[in-house]
Design brief:
CATH superfamily: Vaccinia Virus protein VP39
Distance between the termini: 42 Å
Mean pLDDT: 84
Helix content: 25-40%
Strand content: 25-35%
Number of domains: 1
CATH architecture: 3-Layer(aba) Sandwich
Number of helices: 8
Low-confidence stretches: 1-12
Number of strands: 8
Largest sheet: 8 strands, mixed
C-alpha cells in the first residue's frame, strides 16, 4: 500500500515522490523472481541486461545468477537500498554482476545499448507507448526486449491502482516498428499471487520481442 495522499485512481501518481513514499517505512520480504521472466528468458544466452524498474531486486538477482551483467535501475533510493541488501546474500560473483542505479526512467539515458532490456510492472508518468519506444532504443541489434504489466482486464489492479497502472498488448507492440522488431510473444497471461490467506489470479500482459541484427 502506498503512503501517498494521492488517490489510488490518480493517473498522475507515478512521480519519484510517489514511489519513494510507497517504499518508505516498509521492509519487503524476500521475493521470488517473476514467473513470466523465468519462463521467457531462462534459455536466453547471457550478456548485458538493463532492468528498468528493479523494485526489490529479485529479478535482477535471478538474471545475475544466470550470468547476466545487470544494470538495475529504480527511481526510489529506498527500494534500491532494499534491493542491494537482498543481493548481499548472494555469492560474491552473483552480487558483483549487478550495478545499482537510482534514476528516473523518463529522464535517464544509458551510455550504451544492452543485449536484454526488461521492464515489469513499471508505471511511468508518461504514455506507455512512448516509454516502450525509449526502452526499445536501449536494446542492441540482435537483443531482446521483455515487458510485463497489469492487463486492463485485471479486476484486482483496476480496484487498487491508478488507471495508468494497467496496459494492453497494443500499448507495447504499437511502439515497436515491424521493420526492426520481431514480436515473439504478445499475450495476456494469468499469474497466481498469495496475499495473506487470499489466493488471487492476476492477468498480465507479456511481450517478448527480438531486435533484428541488421538494424
Amino acid at each position: 500500500m502506498s503512503t501517498s495522499d494521492q488517490s489510488p485512481h490518480d493517473d498522475h501518481a507515478f512521480g519519484s515522490q510517489w514511489w519513494e513514499q510507497h517504499y518508505q517505512g516498509t521492509e519487503p520480504g524476500r521475493s521470488e523472481p517473476s514467473p513470466h521472466l523465468v519462463t521467457e528468458l531462462v534459455d536466453l544466452p547471457a550478456g548485458s541486461a538493463l532492468e528498468a524498474g528493479c523494485g526489490t531486486g529479485a529479478d535482477a538477482v535471478w538474471l545475475a545468477r544466470q550470468g547476466w551483467e545487470v544494470t538495475a535501475l529504480d527511481v526510489s533510493p529506498t527500494v534500491v537500498g532494499h534491493a542491494q541488501r537482498f543481493a548481499r546474500d548472494e555469492a560474491p560473483e552473483v552480487a558483483g554482476r549487478i550495478s545499482w542505479v537510482v534514476a528516473d526512467l523518463t529522464e535517464w539515458r544509458p551510455a550504451h545499448q544492452f543485449d536484454l532490456v526488461v521492464s515489469q510492472y513499471v508505471h511511468p508518468d508518461e504514455p506507455f507507448d512512448a516509454f516502450v519506444a525509449r526502452l526499445a532504443e536501449s536494446v542492441a541489434p540482435g537483443g531482446t526486449l521483455f515487458v510485463a504489466g497489469h492487463d486492463h482486464a485485471d479486476t484486482h489492479s483496476a480496484a487498487h491502482a491508478p488507471e495508468g497502472a494497467a496496459i494492453g498488448v497494443d500499448a507495447v507492440v504499437s511502439a515497436l516498428s515491424t521493420d526492426v522488431w520481431d514480436v515473439d510473444v504478445a499475450e495476456t497471461r494469468a499469474r497466481q499471487v498469495t496475499r495473506g490467506a487470499t489466493e488471487l489470479t492476476m492477468q498480465d500482459v507479456v511481450v517478448r520481442a527480438h531486435r533484428t541484427a541488421s538494424r
